[in-house]
Structures are given as C-alpha cells and as structure tokens.
Amino acid sequence: MPGCSPLPIVFCFLLGEKGVLLYRRMTAPWNGTVTVPGGKKERGETAREACIREIEEETGYRLRSLRLRGIAHILSGEAEATGYYFSSRDFEGELRESGEGVPFWHPAGESLSLKGINPFYTLLAPKILDETAPLFEAKILSDEQGIRSSSFENA
C-alpha cells in the first residue's frame, strides 16, 4: 500500500555442525523456494522477540542467544518491507516441520547453489555466513522477476 509503514520481517540463520538450517517454504510469498526461517514481526514485539518466536514456531528450536547481522530496506512495486537478519549458534530443542514449511540442515558452503534457493538468500547469505563480517544495512529493489538492484553499507 502506498504511504504505509514498511512491513517488518525477520529471518534467522541457524548455524550448527551440519551447516545452515534452511527452510522450504510451503506458503506465499515465495512458495516452494528455499531460504531460512522467518516471518512477520507482530505488534508489540521487538525484531529480536519476533525472531525467537518465528524460529520456535517454524522449527521447534528455542534460541538462547542471537546476533543482529543486518537490516535490509526492501522495495517491491508499491510494497515496502524492512528485514532484520539474525544468526545464532545457541539453540536447543528438536527439529520439526510446521504448516508453513519444511526445515532441513544443509552444508553452508553448498547452500548458494541449491536448487530452488531464494534470490534474497543468495544475495544476503555471504554477508551473514561470514561471521566476521560487520553489521550491514542494505537497500534492495525487487519485482516479480527477482532482485533488480541492491546496495550495501557497513552499519
């Protein structure tokens, strides 16, 4: 909607011995693509609280700690979103599916070339998987065909 506040969304890269936890989405948007777990921030939540909730809802894991890795301002037609990207190596619980998708572990180094990988994952993962990389702020322009342009700055 024109003139509306950006939709706040969160995503979390869980990193472990088996690589990165990926998520095959079974709902719109991006139905069928592979990315990391995440979703919309709810009213009254901080981005961190939303990330913790989304991870538990979508994977069964409970985050004990997490780190903000970057913020992306995403423009797609008339829609606008602000994405908060986190990572964590500190979680517990049993992995399970949800009605929204199927989580699975995959070697991080091979994730960028995985069939069906989401273009936002391909763009952002190198900055997040490199745990020494600084916090980033990005501006991403996209449409139905994918990402049209992007720019990054260290925050």
UniProtKB/TrEMBL annotation:
GO terms for molecular function: hydrolase activity. SUPFAM superfamilies: Nudix. Keywords: Hydrolase. The keyword Secreted does not apply. It holds the Pfam family NUDIX. InterPro entries: NUDIX_hydrolase-like_dom_sf, NUDIX_hydrolase_CS, NUDIX_hydrolase_dom. Coiled coil: none annotated. PANTHER family: NUDIX HYDROLASE 23, NUDIX HYDROLASE 23, CHLOROPLASTIC. This is 8-oxo-dGTP diphosphatase.
